[in-house]
Amino acid sequence: MLELPKAMVDQVIAHARRDHPDECCGVIAGKDGQATRLFEMDNADRSPTGFTFDSQQWLQVYRDIDDADEDQLVVYHSHTATEAYPSRTDVLWSRTTEFQHWLLVSTRVAEDEVRSFVITDGEVLEEDLRIT
Amino acid sequence: MSIEVRIPTILRNYTGGEKAVEAKGDTLQGLIDDLDSRHAGIKGRLITSEGALHRFVNVYVNDEDVRFLGSLEAPLKDGDSVTVLPAVAGG
């Protein structure tokens, strides 16, 4: 289960809508499983089919989270033409990142679609997203 | 000659849990070879079987991405700081 404040979920959706038709991406830091801060990241790919964190920005954000003794709670990104479900590429990359949750938002239709997943050793498990 | 190498959580199983280790080398390639001699197996997580820097990691020398510094040929000197991070991407 992932619990997020409504303001953060709203920010993720707004970011996704703003960057559409390209994918957006970002990080939510946390402490003891509770979300603390959201970082909107630059998608270095600027692509409708993929994202890569800008490497220089990622160094700063990683340090910021590490120095504050927080965790890499959530990596979020959007799919702009498909459903909010991890792609094969997402599953591949999940093996080498340290995030606990993958939050996906789809901007393919006007209606908001946000879903959360835990990906362990290549296995995708959807979880409850509780918006508080 | 000593260079501090900061290791991300996901690779600390190679360094006995250490966040930062010391290594030496005139280039990033040399540094990674030296690192692997003390922390066996870590090289395979940083360099592909074809001998290129792995796309799953970002490596920085003094906070600059080595892809802009010559990648594995990036020169190093005493006192430099190398940081390894997991790259983050998806589709």
Give structural notes.
The complex is a heterodimer of chains A (132) and B (91). Helices cover 26% and strands 39% of the residues of chain A. With 132 residues, chain A is of the alpha/beta class. Chain A has a single domain, classed as 3-Layer(aba) Sandwich (Cytidine Deaminase, domain 2), CATH 3.40.140.10. In chain A, the strands form two sheets. In chain A, strands 3-2-5-6-7-8 form a six-stranded mixed β-sheet, with helices on both faces. Chain A has a two-stranded parallel ribbon with strand order 1-9. Chain B has 91 residues and is of the alpha+beta class. Chain B has a single domain (3-86), classed as Ubiquitin-like (UB roll), CATH 3.10.20.30. Helix content of chain B is 16%, strand content 25%. The chains are: A alpha/beta (132), B alpha+beta (91). The A-B interface holds A 25, 41, 45, 49-53, 55-56, 58-59, 62, 75, 77, 86-90, 93, 96-99 and B 8-10, 56-58, 60, 63, 65, 67, 83, 85-91.
Blueprint (SSEs and pairs):
The complex is a heterodimer of chains A (132) and B (91).
Chain A: E1 2-4, H1 6-19, E2 25-31, E3 34-41, E4 51-52, H2 55-67, E5 71-79, H3 88-94, E6 101-106, E7 113-120, E8 123-127, E9 129-131
Parallel strand pairs in A: 1-9, 5-6
Antiparallel strand pairs in A: 2-3, 2-5, 6-7, 7-8
Chain B: E1 3-6, E2 20-23, H1 28-38, H2 43-46, E3 57-61, E4 64-65, E5 81-86, E6 89-90
Parallel strand pairs in B: 1-5
Antiparallel strand pairs in B: 1-2, 3-4, 3-5
